[in-house]
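May I ask for a protein sequence together with how it folds?
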Amino acid sequence: MPREFTPKVVTANALIEGDVVYQTEDDQWTRHLSEAEVITDEAHAQLRQIHAEAQTETVVGVYLADVAPGADGPTPTHFREEFRRTGPSNYPHGKQAELTDV
């Protein structure tokens, strides 16, 4: 029996900086998960992923990540996505030094 589709966001890495980015509803890329488009339809998710994969001048490593909708935007449901969202854990810098959206 096929698995039930769960909410997803399109995520990738910015080509030049390498930062984790998320696709917004208006086809922009953001570094803040809270601004990402939450996709609840499997066919729509596949189309959004294909569209994102075609943006080879902007992003690499595009895939769909599981999220849970929340009051302040989507939240990761897997530790890998939480780690990607907050950055390296060896010492506070970059995203970890920021007080917003972490």
About this structure: Residues 42-53 form the longest helix (12 residues). The longest strand covers residues 59-68.
